Amino acid sequence: MKKKRSQLEIWNFIGFGILGLYCLFLVFPLFRTLKTSVAGADGGFSLMYFKEFFANPYYFSTLLNSFKISVVTMFWSLLLGIPLAYFYTIYVMKAQKFLQIVIVLCSMSAPFIGAYAWILLLGRSGLITVIIERLSGIVLPSIYGFNGIVLVLTTRLFPLVFLYVSGALKSIDSSLLEASQNLGESSFRRFFNVVLPLCMPSILAAALLVFMRALADFGTPLIIGEGYRTFPVEIYNQYVGETAVNHNFAAAISVIAIIITALVFLFQKFLTTKFKFTINSLHSIQRTKPKKGVSIFINIYAYLLVFISMLPQIYLIYISFKKTSASGSLFEPGFSLDSYRIGLKRMGSAIPNTIFIGGISVIFVILLAILVSYLVVRRTGIVSNVIDNLSMVPYIIPGSVIGIALVLAFNTKPIVLTGTVAIMIICMVIRRIPYTIRSSVAILQQIPISIEEASISLGASKIKTFFGITVPMMSNGIISGAILSWIAIITELSTSIILYTAHTVTLTLSIYIFVSRGTDGPAAAMATILSVFTTISLLLFMRISKSKDIIL
Fold first, then answer.
1. At what angle are helices 399-409 and 28-37 packed, to 10 degrees?
2. DSSP per position, 194-229
3. pTM for this entry
4. What's the rounded Cα separation, in Å, for the pair 66 and 306?
5. Residues facing 415 on adjacent strands
6. Which end of the chain is less enclosed by CB atoms within 10 A, N or C?
7. Which three-class secondary structure state does DSSP give residue 232?
C-alpha cells in the first residue's frame, strides 16, 4: 500500500510541477499583459487604450481588414482544398505519393517567405509581370495589399483543408457511396448530397483553423501588405514602432486578440460538437481508376494547383544560384554560389542557432509532451484537465501576443530573461508543444492499459513500467509529433521577431532581415536552406509515421 501511495504522489508531484511551469511561463505573462493593458497614465486602472482602439477608425479598421482577409482566405481554401481531397481519395492519380508530399510542403514554409517570392514573381518588376507586359502589353493587377495577402495565405492554407477532408473521407464506409450510386445519384450529386454532409465536422474544423491562421498571420501582410494594415501587424508596430512605441496600447490590442481568438476557438468547439457523429467504416473507400476525360481533368486540376502553390519556392531556389553583386542586392548574368557565400558570411550563426534553439526546444517538447499526455489519458483529474486546456492556449493565440507577453513578464527582476536564448526556447516550447501532445495522446489512447497492469502485476513499479513499456510503445506518435513541432519551430517568425537579439538570429529571422534590406540573393539562399531543412524533416516524418493524416 505504501508503494502505491508513493507512486501516486510522484505523479501528483509531476502534475503540479507541470502546472506550475504553465502558470509561470504562460498564465503569468498573459496576466501581466492584461495588467499592462489596463494601466493608466497615473498607474491606476483605466480602459483608455481599449476605448482608443474601438473609437479610432484608424486602429479599428485593422481588425476589420484582418477579418475580411480571414473570411476570403477561408472561402478560397475550402473551394480549392475540398475538391482536391475528394479527387485524391476517390480516384487513382498520377504519382499520388509524390503529390501528397508536395501538397504538404506547400503549407510548411513560413508565409512571409511566400509573400516575398510572389513579389519577385508578380511585383512591379517581377519576372512574370515583366514577361507578360513585354509580350502582350497587359499590365497585371497589383500584387500588393489585400489581393496579394489572400493569394499568399490561400496557397499556403488550402493544404490544411486537404488534410482534414482527405482524413475524413478515409473514414467513410464505401457502402454508403455504392448505395447512393445504386439509387441513381450521379457523381456530381453524390458529392454534394452524401460526401459533403458526412465530411461536415472536418470541413468546419478545417475552415475555422484556416480562419484562425489567417487572422493571426503576421509575416504576410508585413511583407506584401504595403499599407493594408492588419491586426497582428498593428500589435507589432505599437510594440516596436520605428517612431514611437506604446507598450500599454500594444498590450490592450493583444488582449483584444486573445479574446477574439478564444471566441473563435469556442465557436469551433461548439460547431464540432453540434455536427459530430460516429461512422463505423467496415469498408474504407478504395480508389478507382477514372474515365480518361475525368482523369485528365483531375490530374490537371491537382498538379496545376500544386505547381502554382510551389512556384514561389521553386523560383527562390532558382535565383539562389544566380550570380549576384558583392552586396547581394543585384543579380548578374550567370550562376554561382555567391548568394550562399554572402548569406553565410553575414548570417552564418543563423544555422547553428536554428539547430541549437530548435533542438533544445524539441527535447523539452518531447519530455513534457510524454508526461502531459500520460497525465491526460491515464491520470484524469482536475489538474490534468487544466494542463490539457492550458497546453492548447498558445495554439490559438497569435505568436506576436505570446512574444510580447513573455517580454512584459520577464524584462524586470526577479526573473530577467529578455534577450537570452532561454526566452526563445521557452517561447518555442510553449507555442509548439501542442503538436506533440496531440499525437502522443492519440497513440496512448490506442494502447490498452492492460499491458501496463500486466507489467505491474509482474513486480515492475509504475514509473519503471511507464518508461520501460509505455514510452517505447508511444515512440511513433512522440517522434511524429516532435518532427512537426520541429518544422513549426524552424519556420517561426511572429514570436522570434519580438524576442531575438543579434546573438539569437535564426534562419527565418535571417531571411526576414535580408528581405527588409533588399538583398534578394542571400535571402533566396537562406530560404532554400530552410526549405531543405523542412523537406528532410517532412520526409523523416512520413518515414516514421504510419499515418498519412497530418494535422498542422
1. 90
2. IIHHHHHHHHHHHHHHHHHHHHH--HHHHHH-TT--
3. 0.83
4. 26
5. 412
6. N
7. helix
Q: How far is residue 382's CA from residue 311's CA, in Å, rounded to a whole number?
A: 49
Please write down the long-range contacts of 37-41, taking CB distance under 8 Å and 24 or more positions apart: 37/248, 37/251, 37/252, 37/254, 37/255, 38/252, 39/248
- Where do the domains of the chain lie? 67-319
Which of helix, strand or coil describes residue 428?
A: helix
- Candidates 310, 308, 335, 309; CA nearest to 521 is 335
Query: In sequence order, what E strands does 295-369 have?
Result: 322-324, 331-335
Tell me the CATH number for domain 67-319.
1.10.3720.10
Reported as a single tens digit per residue, the pLDDT across 124-159 is: 888 898 899 888 888 888 899 999 999 999 999 998
Enumerate residues 6+ apart whose C-beta is below 8 A from 75.
none
Q: How far apart are CA 413 and CA 435, in angstroms?
A: 32
Strand partners, 101: none
Which pLDDT tens digit goes with each residue over 206-255? Answer: 888 888 888 888 888 988 988 888 888 888 888 876 556 778 888 898 89
Ranked by mean pLDDT, which of 439-443, 463-467, 525-529 comes out on top? 525-529
